[in-house]
């Protein structure tokens, strides 16, 4: 879908952040090419013996394919370490009050959405925004102190620490800070959320049309009409951990749409997008204007999906766009033949014939969607090595996915794959694919997780090898880190370490401001492996006078910006 100049606000922002094809992009690239001839020819690259080519950090105008920073070394420091010339600022740490009624920022930040404060009027503010912060889970040691049997009070406290924070922020006198706004709010495990799509009112949810809460909020996505898609990932364990609370597992594991600009609009679970361990939702537009979301099921030997809306995006009709994800088709990727297979009970006989013993596996589309993983495997979806984040390249429209690792198969380092849809159309039913980058000692990274493209189409990736225990990664990787990858030119697919997170943390949810001058990234679970609360393994972002580490956002500045 080509963007037109008269198209809306957010679509223009989307063009800047996600689908950089604008005149601005061309001008910036041209200027860079004229003043800084740093893009190397193949011959120059060959002469360099394939070694990384690094721009002079003083020459900060970002060209394609060359980092503008001096890559840093691995470290195990309890800090966010960034290259010379860059600086970091703590923003919105766990526990900070931010609403009129005294609610506080939740625990374990993950996806971060950046919604320019003026976007509904067509603006793209890079100094003021509503940020949405996913809060994936709590560490009960830090929240209530009991890691095994929780008290009812601790369960209630944990249920208020998950979900999403909508936070107005502003950059003033060189500092980002939270500012008051009636739209500042928390969505937590108690918030009323409407079920939409085929599972609404179905037997698999005992007829429910409205449910309580959104939990397991991992990564997510932003829509062209300015809503958040928050993805419910690890939702099973709460049935036991929160026993007696009324927690209902089948009400979780969906994609929930939230309008940060309109607190009166009840959040919606989009059941047509399936129920599984939803990592993310990467939103783009098909050639005909239908909305496409790419999604991963983050579990060993699970699949990659895409949802195609029935209706088309109308840049002039935000109200109608907010209903687009209620109806559409869900597909699963078959990497064997490069095809998308429809998960529709009425149209796919394999779903009708699928058996569990001698009983039918499914009897309705609602049942297919509620156990999309089983449906995907029944129709030939390809199990892959834990799909984490997925993003669409802003210019090529290739789709990149992080397959983080799979210890079942000895894949400890992970890969980033990419695929090209037929005719470059996101609604196509065929694609070709390949490996973009391999983790391992040769590349310096392991376990790729969240991805984000910059306006030039360079890929930024954060790692999460927290769960892998002792293995060769510890010897070369240091703490979880953030890497930069050119996606074209002589350094295509090479990893350059930009930042390293604190001890026992992962960096999550990277997002650039529209001007490219601020990178927001979350620091999730610092000090995760702490056993003695009096002796935490990290004290990152602890309140003055205390040692308890706090999950938080970090605003990283020092970037030249897209327009430099
Ligand atoms: Fe919550 Fe798959 O990371
Ligand atoms: Ca993740
Ligand atoms: Ca992760």
From TrEMBL:
Q: Which domain of life is it from?
A: Bacteria
Q: Please give one Pfam family short name.
A: PhoX
Name it: DUF839 domain-containing protein
Q: From which organism does this entry originate?
A: Deinococcus wulumuqiensis
Q: What lineage is on file? A: Bacteria, Thermotogati, Deinococcota, Deinococci, Deinococcales
